[in-house]
């Protein structure tokens, strides 16, 4: 839960609900308000104050001094006096008079002359705040990166001189640096029409199911071709990917298609200066393509024509700060507000995107079955009746004979990928006597072992444990649970003594591996890419992935499996994938390579049970009395299901109530939730309650 602001600050801002209060400290430039000469035209500025307090989530009026008239333009950052403090904010608009009827404080300073908050970004931020029951200022902290004054000075060039000219609408432009448009979409019946409509300046919406993670048909080349088609029509593009490895792949493909000067990267990994410089290049129109992580969904791209999102099922795309928006929903809002094209792409399809497909809001782009069989590897499941008949021990073995034999044969022609569920050496340990999980003495977190040479340590706080004693029975003997990537690599090294073993997990994730025989042990999501594809892949610990208590366990596991299988050579080149899991539904979808069918069945079950995305869910978390009081103030319709409050954090005394809201009532309920949150904060009614809408980790 987000920490509350200090009581003193809250009290000061609470006493200054209107910036027109006559406070002497609000005028550092003059002895009183009458000494400040205001601007001749539009002397009243509407300002969004940067504050997380929900009752301050509105516009405030300020006077514009005459000396700041030229600088105080809509979209610029400003400093204003508020409740005895100087706070940052954004100047939204200018007017002739204030409706408050009070004498107004003047703006203290203008921070930079560039309008960093575009009107369309403000509209999007307001829509996101409404959808997630948050505040606009919280959304803007993500949408607009922190200011770096030195970067603004370096780019202090009039926008007309720096604005990038629109490229000629000719497909030959794309062939100068790379392959012609459409080659990565061979075998996709609807892809050509989608690209043609993009090139013609239209705004189609599609959901792409990619099947290859390397080579000329790789997903990042497909996205690059879609980006190039829109860019050559004279419009801008935003592409959002989950992590840095995906971003590097996409940037390399866009460089091949359009050249290195055609785009900017928006990622915190590049540092504050580089990120802010890229942001300003979009603001001034110097660049029209933005590639980045989840915050890039708010990029101020001019003449926006296409919004892309790769692997929207990855929980990394969910913002970790209030109001906890998902990049997919931000892109959906911008596509509707700015009438832009939209492309969701992934190896699998989330139930949220499947819902859009079934409502015909987006059109599916998939491989034909004949092309799918040619491009994908052969998939075997150890839960198959034939495999169980040939090897009954396969039902309980972590590495069945079929998997071991497949690895032995495939190593003769190339690297073999081994996907495991967890990093470390022994990430889970139990008491040998009573079978209770081992716990840390400091925080009660789970104990594990990172390597055979290191002692036990807590996986939460990192405290080492040198003399373990079970809290339940007092035994000092340990029982090993799940084996991590380190232990698996050690065991495979013994089983294949003449083969090199490469690990990719934790803080040592590799982007690629050489195209030579080797065993590559990687945790889910950390699989390196082999230039010519893996000869085989062993998907271990499937039952462990499927045993997590989460609504999206099956959906998430299939997504992880398909991501690993997409790195394997096609069956015509001998590629084979062995899935070690007892679950029939998810493994059957992998064997058939049918993510669309799996998403369709999963969505049908959610609709029957009234679970997301068939309904929206609002989680209220806080002390028991606060949660109950907040729920009572909402005046919920009868169609809303209320579950809870239930204890979720015994040490913190936190309870949670879940509200399952039909889409028809969602807008009204969330408006009421925002109003109740603001009134509670203004009146200081008990402890604050955290609001989370549609959190993928709540259920």
Please tag this protein with its features:
single chain; 699 residues; alpha/beta; seven-stranded parallel beta sheet; six-stranded parallel beta sheet; 20% strand; disordered N terminus
Describe this structure in words.
By secondary structure, the chain is an alpha/beta fold. Helix content is 31%, strand content 20%. A hairpin with a 7-residue loop joins strand 16 and strand 17 (456-458). Helix 2 (119-131) packs across helix 11 (327-338). The longest helix is centred in the C-terminal third of the chain and has 21 residues, at 663-683.
Number of strands: 29
> Biggest sheet: strands side by side, in what order?
8-9-7-10-11-6-12
Question: How helical, in percent, are the residues?
Answer: 25-40%
Number of DSSP helices? 22
The 3D shape can be described as globular
CA radius of gyration: 28 Å
Low-confidence stretches: 1-33, 158-162, 169-180
- Give the rounded overall mean pLDDT: 86
Helix/strand structural class: alpha/beta
First-last Cα distance: 17 Å
The proportion of strand residues reads 15-25%
Major sheet description: 7 strands, parallel
How would you concisely characterize the structure shown here?
This protein has 22 helices and 29 strands. It has 699 residues and is α/β, with parallel strands linked by helices. Strands 8-9-7-10-11-6-12 form a seven-stranded parallel sheet, sandwiched between helices. Strands 13-25-24-14-22-20 form a six-stranded parallel sheet, sandwiched between helices.
């Amino acid at each position: 839960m987000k920490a509350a602001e200090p009581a003193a600050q809250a009290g000061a801002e609470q006493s200054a609900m209107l910036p027109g209060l006559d406070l002497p400290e609000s005028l550092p430039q003059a002895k009183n308000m009458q000494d400040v000469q205001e601007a001749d035209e539009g002397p009243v500025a509407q300002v969004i104050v940067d504050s997380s307090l929900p009752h301050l989530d509105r516009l405030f009026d300020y006077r514009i001094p005459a000396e700041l008239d030229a600088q105080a333009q809509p979209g610029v950052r400003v400093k204003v006096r508020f409740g005895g403090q100087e706070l940052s904010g954004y100047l939204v608009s200018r007017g002739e008079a204030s409706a408050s009827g009070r004498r107004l404080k003047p703006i203290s300073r203008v921070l930079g002359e560039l309008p960093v908050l575009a009107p369309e970004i403000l509209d999007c931020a307001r829509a996101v705040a409404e959808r997630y029951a948050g505040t606009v200022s919280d959304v803007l902290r993500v949408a607009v990166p922190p200011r770096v004054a030195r970067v603004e000075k370096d780019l202090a060039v009039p926008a007309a001189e720096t604005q990038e000219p629109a490229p000629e609408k000719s497909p030959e432009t794309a062939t100068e640096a790379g392959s012609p448009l459409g080659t990565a979409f061979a075998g996709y019946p609807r892809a050509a029409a989608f690209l043609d409509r993009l090139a013609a300046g239209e705004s189609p919406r599609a959901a792409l199911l990619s099947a290859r993670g390397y080579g000329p048909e790789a997903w990042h080349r497909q996205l690059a071709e879609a980006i190039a088609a829109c860019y050559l029509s004279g419009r801008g593009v935003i592409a959002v990917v989950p992590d840095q490895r995906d971003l590097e792949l996409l940037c390399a493909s866009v460089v091949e298609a359009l050249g290195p000067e055609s785009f900017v990267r928006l990622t915190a990994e590049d540092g504050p200066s580089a990120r802010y410089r890229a942001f300003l290049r979009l603001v001034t129109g110097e660049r029209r393509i933005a590639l980045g992580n989840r915050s890039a969904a708010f990029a101020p791209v001019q003449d926006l024509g296409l919004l892309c999102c790769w692997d929207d099922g990855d929980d990394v795309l969910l913002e970790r700060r209030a109001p906890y928006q998902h990049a997919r929903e931000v892109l959906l809002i911008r596509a509707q507000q700015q009438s832009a094209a939209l492309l969701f792409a992934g190896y699998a399809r989330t139930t949220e995107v499947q819902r859009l497909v079934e409502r015909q809001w987006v059109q599916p782009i998939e491989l034909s079955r004949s092309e799918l069989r040619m491009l994908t590897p052969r998939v075997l499941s150890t839960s198959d009746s034939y495999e169980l008949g040939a090897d009954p021990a396969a039902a309980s073995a972590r590495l069945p004979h079929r998997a071991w034999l497949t690895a032995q044969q495939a190593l003769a022609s190339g690297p073999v990928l081994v996907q495991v569920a967890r990093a470390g050496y022994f990430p889970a340990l139990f008491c040998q006597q009573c079978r209770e999980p081992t716990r840390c003495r400091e925080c009660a977190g789970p104990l594990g072992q990172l390597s055979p040479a290191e002692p036990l340590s807590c996986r939460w706080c990192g405290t080492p444990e040198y003399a373990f004693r079970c809290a339940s029975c007092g035994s000092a003997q340990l029982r090993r649970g799940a084996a991590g990537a380190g232990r698996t690599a050690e065991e495979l090294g013994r089983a294949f003594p003449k083969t090199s073993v490469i690990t990719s997990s934790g803080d040592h994730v590799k982007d690629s591996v050489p195209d030579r025989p080797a065993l590559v042990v990687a945790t889910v999501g950390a699989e390196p890419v082999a230039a010519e594809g893996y000869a085989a892949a062993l998907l271990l610990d499937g039952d462990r992935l499927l045993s997590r208590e989460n609504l999206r366990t099956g959906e998430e596991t299939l997504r992880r499996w398909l991501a690993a299988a997409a790195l394997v050579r096609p069956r015509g080149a001998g590629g084979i994938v062995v899935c070690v899991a007892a679950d029939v539904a998810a493994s059957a979808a992998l064997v058939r390579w049918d993510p669309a069918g799996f998403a369709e069945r999963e969505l049908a079950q959610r609709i029957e049970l009234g679970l997301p995305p068939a309904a929206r869910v609002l989680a209220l978390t806080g002390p028991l009395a606060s949660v109950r009081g907040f729920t009572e103030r909402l005046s919920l319709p009868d169609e809303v299901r209320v579950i809870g409050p239930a204890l979720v954090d015994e040490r913190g005394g936190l309870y949670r109530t879940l509200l399952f809201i039909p889409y028809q009532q969602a807008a009204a309920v969330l408006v009421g939730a925002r109003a109740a949150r603001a009134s509670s904060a203004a009146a200081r009614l008990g402890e604050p309650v955290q609001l989370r809408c549609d959190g993928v980790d709540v259920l």
